[in-house]
Known about the structure:
- The structure is a single chain.
- By secondary structure, this protein is α/β, with parallel strands linked by helices.
- Helices cover 33% and strands 19% of the residues.
- Among the domains are: 91-165; 168-308, Rossmann fold, CATH 3.40.50.
- The chain has helices spanning 21-25, 31-38, 47-57, 63-83, 106-117, 131-141, 222-237, 273-289, and strands spanning 91-94, 145-151, 160-165, 168-174, 177-182, 187-190, 204-207, 242-247, 253-258, 264-268, 297-299, 307-308.
- A 9-stranded mixed beta sheet has the order 6-5-4-7-8-9-10-11-12. A 3-stranded mixed beta sheet has the order 1-3-2, covered by helices on one side.
- The protein is elongated, with a radius of gyration of 52 Å.
- The N and C termini lie far apart (187 Å).
Amino acid sequence: MFKKKKEPEQDRLGRQRQPRAEQRNSxxxxxxxxxxxxxxTAGRTDPQAATRAAALRAPRPGLPRRAFVGAxxxxxxxxxxxxxxxxxxxxxxxxxxxxxxxxxxxxxxxDAANRLLSGSTLNRTKVTxxxxxxxxxxxxxxxxxxxxxxxxxxxGGRPVVHVRPATPRLLLNVGQTLYVVDDSGRxxxxxxxxxxxxxxDLPVVVDQSGxxxxxxxxxxxxxxxAFITEVAGQLQAKGLSIASIVLPxxxxxxxxxxxxxxxxxxxxxxxNGRVEAGAFLAVKEQLEREHKTPSSYIDVRxxxxxxxx
Length: 309
């Protein structure tokens, strides 16, 4: 009724035929088998995932380090705020040649600068200090100053006050008062207020014009001052000592009398000082060679002319 199952064919040598390799190794789909096969790639590492993992594992700044940075920033802010404040006293510097004789004691300038500095609370910081007002106050108080300014240091809290006195050129005798006059012709101050005035060796000029002179105001024109100092310098360079220099009233004339001479040299203030001084010296030497002595004057007021009496 049922047929007998055939036995595998045998080759002619009596060996049983083996099934094909692809049939032996044919895989059967299974969820577990597929998952097991994918698990073979678990050993490979994703580079981005490794970077993220390393970042998560990196040590983060702890509380002490953050506190140190914050303290440093706070200290810098405090030092910056402190640097904005100024001291109540200033350092005063007198500008000018080292060989110049100061017209006033430096302490007077320093005391006045400190009073002006402490006169307003706004002068206590570098942002609100009024340097121009301090400089103007010094110039109005000390008429002999040719300039003044205040500098504020970038680092440090002490301002520096610079004062530059004018250069005195001559002493002008008006009435009973002797004034120090600068190269612009301005009367700076009375000579008795200048310590060591004799060390300046300035020519003394007597003004007979009768005009009033006030400290801080114009006393002579600058051209007159230049003429007087030029003639005086030329005569002194020849070893001559000047006994007096007089400006007569009502004319642009200057009379110079030498020590030991019985005559006067007459000069024109509107001329060239060097030329007139040279003409005067030439006439004087010529008369000395001829053994002649003027009894009254040597007049060089006319250009290219000289007269004597």
